User: Which sequence fits this backbone?
């Protein structure tokens, strides 16, 4: 009743686990550069989120007086927790580090400009 598929595997069997050939051999330069740019980008994004989520005209202790400031503060807190979680999730392969290197080189200047504009 259960016939094997085109590749010889039945529905209930799982295919063999395969790994990328370069998943263990990430060049040191790429690893350091990708990790550094990723860390700077995430740190700048965290600073920008904290700055934007602070109450506009009040202190943090009187944010509950204005509903929109309280919503902004709560959303900022949730986003900051998500960003902090991302700090501890390192890329798994060389493509992940390469992506962060390219994204960071384009994103870090943009986030820095946003920080200076918001501050």
Assistant:
């Amino acid at each position: 009743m259960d016939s094997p598929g085109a590749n010889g595997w039945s529905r209930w069997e799982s295919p063999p686990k395969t790994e990328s050939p370069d998943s263990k051999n990430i060049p040191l330069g790429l690893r350091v550069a990708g990790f550094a740019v990723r860390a700077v980008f995430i740190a700048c994004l965290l600073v920008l989120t904290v700055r934007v989520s602070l109450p506009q005209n009040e202190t943090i202790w009187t944010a509950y007086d204005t509903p929109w400031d309280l919503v902004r503060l709560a959303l900022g807190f949730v986003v900051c927790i998500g960003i902090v979680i991302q700090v501890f999730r390192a890329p798994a392969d060389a493509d992940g580090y390469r992506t962060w290197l390219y994204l960071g080189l384009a994103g870090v200047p943009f986030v820095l400009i946003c920080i200076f504009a918001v501050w």
Residues 28-118 form one domain. The chain has a mean pLDDT of 82.
